[in-house]
Amino acid sequence: MRFLLTVLIALLALTSATAVLGSPSTTDELIHEVENDLLPISAPKSELGRLANIRDRMKQYGVPGLSLAVVADGRIAWAKGYGVADIRSNRAVTTDTLFQAASISKSLTAVGALLLVERGKLRLDDDVNRHFTSWRIPPNTFTASHPVTLRTLLDHSAGLTDAVFDNYEPGQPLPTLWQVLDGEPPAHSPPIRVESVPGEQYSYSNSGYTVLQQLLVDASGQPFEGFMQSEILRPMGMMHSTFEEPLPESLLPSAATGHHAGGEPVPGGYRVSPELAVAGLWTTPSDIAGYIIQVQQWHAGRRGGLLSSQLVSQMLSPQIAYAGLGVVISGRGEGARFGHDGFNEGFESSMVGYIHHGEGAVVMANSGFAYMLIKEVLASIAHVYHWPRYGSANQWPPSASITQQEVAPVPRDMLSAAAGRYELDGDNVIRVFAKGGRLYMHWDHDGDAEIFRVPDGRYFCAPLTFSELGNPFLRLVLGAPNTVTEILADEGRRVLRRIP
């Protein structure tokens, strides 16, 4: 999901920056520009074009803490932390504060898989069942014409069950990875099986990276977290990163607490799951920036790295749709980029790096519904550092380009008409309510997100706008007298249906 925060929180503490590139005065000036050049994604007509400060936007979105790192000329130009790692203790975010990277974990997992390809232990286009020594993908009619391969696992085209995984508080019993793969208790997700011909279509798949996790265990002969630590994270210099969950006691003082939109801490501080390859990485923006730099260098042909330029070229090439191998590919030519977003309960993040230039950035937040703020920060960095063709029409997803949207007040009668409970995709119940003359959606485990009205009478809301919808606008459909009965995507597809 892509999310919006609307509830204000307490005054946010500011930590010191670390400057690595250029003279301190020059770097300080660039930092100042980035911090003050945020263009809000939405604004009333009277404020269109007015730039904003990063701390003010954090307050507006209700984000307790934010951390970022900027890559320029192939080096970390600077990194900086803002706000608090934990709203209860008021502990400040520093550049060493650990955040859950969520699905950015997939990009590092992909490096682990490609390293085993370099070493001849795996092949991109082999049937992966040849390399399992424990669990295997059950064959069926779909795999008869095309097997599941490492490539299809990495580019989300393996045709596997679209599973939604549970997460747990630290200390709660976890299912084993085998139990998740076979849908056995205490796992609540269905068995992971092939449901369409592998390689034929893209479908974002957490299930695929769960299978990949077991494949790396079998092919390396090591526990996943141990393999990633010794063979990927340490050699890449990512000394503030780990796939170990629950977090060791020694790392807890350095870890941010996850928060729901508006500042409520996630129970237990963060969530745990056995699907480490999917979303289990704890890290810092500087460590992820180091990953970006090394991928750029490997692609350019630097010798001595973990991966060859030939293999990285495949990694950074669209395999199917916009998917590379473990990364999302966007832009073209000089504007070609690789990256990934991440969404865990209480944590959201985004990274982007240029394929042919040493530019990029990483932004991480310890809050749900922080995605719009993250995109505003990335757009400011892009502007200040003159990123080529960032936010152009060929960027994926379409909604990621930062184009300011004029918003208008929600009519008073619509505030009352829309209030109620709605069903989302048959699985989730969303509560819509009015507060202070504004309209909000409440999402369990995430918090409150504002529903904005645009001047032509349509609406948008971040959790729906920045998800699967190519067209971000919504229509609120009046049925019974003064009652919204459903909320539709602008193309007419139902998104939310009112329930009693």
- Tell me the domain tally: 2
Mean pLDDT: 90
Number of helices: 14
Report the uncertain regions.
1-24, 392-401
* CATH fold name of the largest domain: Beta-lactamase
| CATH architecture verdict of the largest domain | 3-Layer(aba) Sandwich
Radius of gyration: 22 Å
Characterize the overall form: globular
What percent strand?
Answer: 15-25%
Count the beta strands: 20
- CATH homologous superfamily title of the largest domain: DD-peptidase/beta-lactamase superfamily
Q: First CA to last CA: what distance?
A: 25 Å
The CATH class of the largest domain: Alpha Beta
Biggest sheet features:
8 strands, antiparallel
Please bin the fraction of helical residues: 25-40%
Q: Which structural category fits the helices and strands?
A: alpha+beta
Q: Could you characterize the architecture of this molecule?
A:
This protein has 500 residues and is of the alpha+beta class. The strands form four sheets. Strands 1, 3, 4, 5, 8, 9, 10 and 11 form an eight-stranded antiparallel sheet that branches. Strands 17-16-15-14-13-20-19-18 form an eight-stranded antiparallel sheet. Strands 2-12 form a two-stranded parallel ribbon. Helix 3 packs across helix 8. The protein folds into two domains: 301 residues, Beta-lactamase (3-Layer(aba) Sandwich), CATH 3.40.710; 92 residues, Lipocalin (Beta Barrel). The two termini are 25 Å apart. Strand 15 and strand 16 form a beta hairpin.
